[in-house]
């Protein structure tokens, strides 16, 4: 007998970057469903909680259903239209909300109005900033450098606009935070690199427009998907 699908939306604010919190909460919430159902993660594809939800799905072997907002066609209504479509095609919502994001609040209200099971995990931006401040000064410097190169690469303004500058900075940042002496599979390596790419994109969220952020997402995804860097490319 085939197991039925259980479709859970993982959504939240665009500045959410605490993957460990997301993983712990989703593991707990979905634990009672995974034996009897095929878990499907529904994503609005936005950076932040949505993209981390997709990462969670990939790590657990869950199918992903994506509902990207069509901003060109729907304008300012794109977000609410996308939220309604997701709620119409899901059983539950796991939302990571800072208490302020109107987009996430609309998703929560829409899911409740349509009768979905809703779990809201509240967090504060201040907590995330405090976590960031605990970084080693060297790692914080590499993170800031990667963010700056990302902005310069997309805007073509500054001294470091080339792809190689951004790629090398990202790899230096990634190498600095890896656990020394621990070997991982190529699949896990790429998964961790993509989580780091999300953090870089979030750092750029208030410094680039929507179109530029979309371009940056593609560039960072390409860089994060690389595991062997050619020695022939230099700054």
Characterise this structure:
It contains ten helices and five strands. Helices cover 54% and strands 13% of the residues. A five-stranded parallel beta sheet has the order 3-2-1-4-5, sandwiched between helices. With 235 residues, it is α/β, with parallel strands linked by helices. The protein is globular, with a radius of gyration of 18 Å. It has two domains: 5-127, Rossmann fold; 135-224.
- The CATH class of the largest domain is identified as Alpha Beta
Count of helix runs: 10
| Elements, N to C (H/E) | EHEHEHHEHEHHHHH
Low-confidence stretches: 228-235
Class from helix and strand fractions? alpha/beta
Distance between the first and last residues' Cα: 57 Å
Count of beta strands: 5
Choose one word for the global shape.
globular
Percent range of helical residues? 40-55%
Q: How many distinct domains?
A: 2
What oligomeric state best describes the polypeptide chains here?
A: single chain
Name the beta content range. 5-15%
CATH names the topology of the largest domain as Rossmann fold
The CATH architecture term of the largest domain is 3-Layer(aba) Sandwich
What is the typical, i.e. mean, pLDDT?
Answer: 85
What radius of gyration results from the CA coordinates?
A: 18 Å
